[in-house]
Specification:
By secondary structure, this protein is an alpha+beta fold. The chain contains three helices and six strands, in the order αβββαβαββ. It has two domains: about 30 residues; about 100 residues, Aminopeptidase, CATH 3.40.630. About 15% of the residues are buried.
Amino acid sequence: MAELTITVENHPSAEAIRTVINNLIEYNNIRQTEKDVYQPLTILLRDSNSQTVGGLIGKTQWGWLFISHLWVSQALRNQGYGQQLMLKAEEVAKQRNCSHAYLDTFSFQALGFYERLGYEKFGVLEDFPPGHQRYFLQKQI
């Protein structure tokens, strides 16, 4: 057998990353589960000059909506735009045959906002980052 080495690489090649991810997906996802239908989701809030002043980034996969990022410009906060972006994401997810949604947030971010929208905590990492918590939330949509 050829000699193997384990290396820590701070700047791995894109090819090395693709090899690991593609082989993991091939084995775990395709062979072990139903077909993986992944669709990215981007919803933008734009002003009259077409400038992006808010947005939601996520994906739908295996009947779930995942929201990775939600942002609204500071000047537009507390005016319902975040809620509108979330509701639009849930609407699109339902059209894509999703029945659940999940996301994560930090204790210094928007936990109360998501809870008011019906999201419930299912996990927490304490002291991540130090002195704070990272919350994981889900919702049936």
